[in-house]
Write a structure and sequence with these properties.
By secondary structure, the chain is of the alpha+beta class. The protein is built from 12 helices and 8 strands. The strands form 3 sheets. Strands 2-3-7-8 form a 4-stranded antiparallel β-sheet, covered by helices on one side. It is elongated, with a radius of gyration of 38 Å. About 12% of the residues have low confidence.
């Protein structure tokens, strides 16, 4: 083989090394851009709580950000471990010199350098990145916990808004019935016109409250969509949970029809046909319905609801929170990383012990000279004592801050759990009392309604009884909602998904 061919082969080796390096470390842009398909919701589907949580976990950009942070720290951990890997070097060249004893010269040299010992600096770097990676893992768990809590919060908001909407609808239907009764009594001379005026005011206020309740329900759905990161979602409905299973009388379509009747000025009254169809569905859907003497249906919201207290002592809840909370675990990992960073800063003065092996060829004709070198070196770093001192001071401050953050977080967890537990127990005592209040208010309203229907009672008595019954139902539904909010917040504060 000619000397020039040898030169070409040497250059070709350099090209192969460059190509291999780029093939190994090239960025796979398709992999980066290949994101999971966003979860959607089909039209008229019924979602339960687990469905909503799964959709949120799949769609959440916050989770994606946390997962990317984990990948970032994995890459940094790999970089730290790379100090233990040998470094390769390849030198290859050709030179041509005129007016010299040597006209042509080929150089080829391959070297390998390996770190032997650097007094624990590399191991400290690796530990720092391991603790940072662990902190990022707990950060992802905390984002998942927060996402689940947000979905639960919004989901129970929808359930409460739906119950509130049904209570306000039945109140509007009763107000309409009483308005028609007052007009009938006035027409036959049994009641004064003031009863008609009062009944009309009550009926109009009831319609306004129902329209507001419908708006609250739609806003609750928007909040649930937001918690699931759904944009332009199709219409859907949600199912009850074991802790919130109050009966609801109207379907989504029927509620929309009634809403339109109340909203449009030219149709200010709910038609009897729609009332009857809605009432028929309510009677068929619940065996506990009670027909008032007025002919309207009373939906027994207490019949199917089963209240089960959340049995956990405060000390146990606080202990569970300290063991489970991922945000606290992340801070503990940060503290370990800060400790190791301080050790690393103190090791900056220490030298590096390296071993090297190189082999190569050099010459202007064949046979070329072959060389093999094996050596060791102790590299003492150039130290700036002032800079190193302040790096150590910075690491000490970071460690002190990490310890303070842990103390602060433990205090916050303690008070969060304590407050959530106290609220939960207070609501548990309140619900049975409100249960009795609803029953008593209904009995009083039923008597007042019967007396007014036969012309014995006055409208003020009936109005007060209806208002008390409506408020008692709302208070009971609010207490059940508050109980669920307190329960899921207690679970969230304990780190329970």
């Amino acid at each position: 083989m000619s000397f020039k061919n040898k030169v070409i082969n040497s250059v070709f080796c350099i090209f192969l090394l460059f190509f291999a390096q780029n093939a190994v470390f090239a960025i796979d842009e398709e992999t980066i851009e290949n994101k999971p398909v966003e979860a959607k919701v089909s039209k008229d589907v019924v979602l339960n709580l687990d469905d909503c949580i799964k959709i949120a976990l799949r769609n959440s950009p916050q989770i994606e950000i946390s997962e990317n942070e984990i990948l970032l720290y994995k890459a940094r951990l790999g970089q730290a471990k790379a100090d233990y890997s040998p470094t390769l070097g390849l030198n290859n060249g050709y030179s041509h010199t005129k007016h010299s004893l040597i006209d042509e010269l080929v150089l080829a040299n391959l070297s390998v350098n390996q770190l032997i010992y650097n007094f624990g600096k590399t191991s400290s770097k690796i530990k720092v990145q391991k603790f940072n990676l662990k902190s990022a893992d707990f950060g992802l768990e905390n984002v998942i916990l927060q996402t689940i809590y947000n979905v639960k919060n919004a989901y129970y908001g929808v359930l409460f808004a739906k119950v509130e909407q049904d209570i306000k609808l039945r109140n509007a239907q009763l107000a309409e019935r009483h308005y028609e009764m007052a007009k009938g009594f006035y027409d036959v001379g049994m009641k004064s016109y003031i009863d008609v005026t009062n009944a009309e005011v009550t009926y109009n206020n009831a319609k306004i409250e129902y329209v507001q309740a419908m708006t609250n329900y739609r806003n609750a759905i928007i909040a649930l969509n937001n918690s699931m990161y759904l944009v332009d979602s199709a219409k859907y409905s949600v199912s009850d949970t074991e802790d919130f299973n109050m009966p609801k009388g109207l379907s989504e379509k029927e509620a929309e029809q009634v809403y339109q009747k109340y909203v449009l000025p030219e149709k200010s009254h709910v038609s009897q046909n729609i009332d009857e169809s809605a009432q028929t569905k309510t009677e068929q859907g619940s065996s506990s319905s009670v027909v008032l003497k007025s002919g309207l249906v009373k939906h027994n919201m207490l019949e199917n609801f089963k209240f089960t207290p959340y049995n956990i002592e405060m000390d146990e809840a606080i202990k569970t929170a300290y063991e489970n909370r991922p945000d606290l675990k992340a801070l503990l990992a940060k503290e370990k990383s800060a400790k190791e960073s301080l050790r690393l800063a103190k090791k900056e003065y220490f030298p590096d012990l390296n071993a090297s092996l190189s082999t190569g060829f050099m010459g202007d004709n064949f046979p070329v000279h072959h060389t093999l070198r094996l050596g060791a070196s102790l590299n003492i770093p150039t130290v700036n004592p002032m800079l190193t001192k302040y790096k150590i001071d910075e690491s000490k401050v970071n460690l002190s801050t990490a310890l303070a953050n842990i103390t602060l977080q433990k205090q916050n967890i303690f008070f969060d759990v304590q407050k959530a537990h106290t609220n939960l127990k207070e609501i548990e005592r309140r619900i049975p009392l409100l249960d009795a209040t609803v029953k008593q208010a209904f009995q009083n309203f039923e008597l007042a309604d019967g007396r007014y229907e036969v012309g014995l009672g006055n409208y003020i008595e009936l109005q007060d009884a209806q208002t008390d019954y409506n408020n008692a139902q709302l208070a009971y539904a609010q207490a059940v909602y508050d109980y669920n909010m307190a329960r899921i917040y207690l679970e969230y504060s304990m780190g329970v998904k």
